[in-house]
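User: Show me a protein chain along with its predicted structure.
Assistant: Here is one chain, sequence first, then structure tokens.
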Amino acid sequence: MLPKPGDLINIDKKTPGVIIAEKSNYNKSWGYMLCNLEPDQNALVLETYVPSISLNSKPSRKADILLRPEQEKLRQKNADAENPIQGMLILVVALGEHIVELVWSEDSCSIVSL
């Protein structure tokens, strides 16, 4: 089962992500920063999308490029599948005061059932 906006997910294993919005101490905005999401945290799914890096029709977003290594791991894991890109999903989540993008993997995250 894939997460959808409004779902609560639990980070089960250390997972790479990209912080996409932040304010610095100097009140200046900056865009993207690589991070690791530690286990035993919950996040609210704000949006899900198929990465444009796997679609030839759209230019890649900066967050997609930063998440490329994690996408490649998932692609290699599914290499035997007819279409290894199928099912690849990026989550945009609220984690504390941060907005973070990560590659959905059932090995490292789970949907919390209430």
